Amino acid sequence: MPLSEIIKEKIRKNGPIAFQDFMEMALYYPQLGYYSSDRNKIGTNGDYYTSTDLSAVFGAMIGRQLEEMWYLTGQEAFTIVEYGAGTGAFCHNLLDYLKNNRPFYERLRYCIIEKSPHMREMEKAHLCEKVSWYDSIADIGEITGCILSNELLDNFSVHEVVMEDTLMEVFVGYENGFFEMLQPASEPLKDYLKQLHINLPEGFRTEINLQATEWITEIAQSLQKGFVLTIDYGYPSTELYCEYRCKGTLMCYRGHQVNDDPYQHIGEQDITAHVNFSALNHWGLKNGLECCGFTEQGHFLRSLGLMEHLRALEKNRENTLFANPEEAIAIHNLLNDIGTKLKIFIQRKGLSPKGLRGLSLAGVSL
Predict the structure, then answer these.
(1) How does the average pLDDT of the chain come out, rounded?
(2) Domain locations in the chain as residue ranges
(3) For residue 154, which of 114, 198, 207, 204 has the smallest C-alpha distance?
(4) Strand order across the beta sheet in which 257-259 lies
(5) Residue 44: pLDDT over 80
(6) pLDDT tens, 55-99?
(7) Which CATH number fits domain 51-157+207-359: 3.40.190.10, 2.60.40.10, 3.40.50.12710, 3.90.1150.10?
(8) Facing residues of 112 across strands?
């Protein structure tokens, strides 16, 4: 049975469902959801690109930042936890770079938390040394190291809300087509806005990502000492709730085409919503995670010496950047296209405040 029919049947049986439940099913329903299926999602034949698919140097630059984090944690056993490793390209490129630092590499373990069976098998096909797979961070045990995610949180299912006389939540019904209706929002949704001191104007529609606050709370409990490195699309509250975003940030991707209709191509298109980094900071602080800094990806890569790294590769004839237009375009995109849209947010736990190299150009406040 097509996923759309399964969702229709659920609505017929139980009545309208919260948009968050619709999005969760569209993305993660077993075998049929977008991320649960064996559909090609990433790259030329997929629906979108990530930074790791553009160039291997992205993994090398993250490796540089992890080396500094290792020194700051005392050069002891270090665990990297990656949520949602995609094709495994990022892990491969990162470990390939870190092999050059033998003392670090020998003390390193790499844990991947991957809920998609198809993606897990794809990752296992070319990742073996140092890598192990888990269903939950709780299965790993206490962690000293870095928990990282790359374009993960914008795919968590979100609640859609609209401010009328009071806060209302979007529900999805079906009658000759999917339709939306409003019901009074639950207390957790109201409390989310209250804790962030957000007052939405009448008519303002936006997303609330409660799964992200649960995620940051969970990983804070597992991290004993080290860092959380989050790479994603999003803004702090001051930008996310600007008047010109009064219709929210929800977008869909299919075949590298963008649309704003989540009720078509159900299970065959990605559905995303921008991350509220102020919320990650707020719930992180409540659980012992202090803010190290927040910046654009382009600034982060420049701070870590991307251009110097490329020149060294060129000099050693390991790279043909200036003779390879595709690679040059990829670097441009990492720095200036998605490099301005993707944000880097780093938090720490159990460590005294010290500046990180990748955040030396950071200047955005949360």
Answers:
(1) 90
(2) 51-157+207-359
(3) 207
(4) 257-259, 251-254, 270-272
(5) no
(6) 788 899 999 999 999 999 999 999 999 998 888 889 999 999 999
(7) 3.40.50.12710
(8) 82, 133
